[in-house]
Amino acid sequence: MSTSAHEAMRTHPDILEMRARYERAAEQPPAQVVDGLLMMAGLYAACSAWIVGFSGQMNLTMSNLFTGLAVALLAAAFGTALARTHGMTFVAPLLGVWLIVSPWVVAGVTTSTGMIWSNVVVGIVVCVLGLAAAAMGTDLMTRSRS
Fold first, then answer.
1. Contact 25, 134 (CB under 8 A)
2. CA of 107: how far to CAs of 46, 47, 57, 100, 118, in Å?
3. How far is 134 from 7, CA to CA, in rounded Å?
4. Could you read off the pLDDT of 100-142 as tens digits, one per residue?
5. Residue 53 per-residue DSSP state
6. Which of 130, 37, 136 is nearest to 92 (CA)?
7. E-strand spans in 21-141?
């Protein structure tokens, strides 16, 4: 029973139309730019310890590596399957906030000015781009209902 009900929901015309709207939104140039920039910001965050030169701070290095990879993977998911991943767009701004506060929150870190600036700037970029990605899908849904 539950399998057939699940199958019926997956092929319901309203669900198919909603997915089609999300896919059309993901194909628009502004969405592609936001997703691409979000991916680049995530990759920078992942590599920032080696770029800025704080790879000796293992705790913050690992935090940035995993957070940056998570952001890059989310951006790739938004770019390839927005209809299925739009519900997770709220995670990107949260990861941006984590990047901002992590130099002060992660244990055992001796911060430098470069580390702080790097994390704060990339965190703000991730936060803003994540909010933009979330707003695009929300805007699409509200426009389509009118």
1. no
2. 18, 20, 10, 15, 18
3. 28
4. 999 999 999 998 999 999 999 999 999 999 999 888 766 555 5
5. I
6. 130
7. none
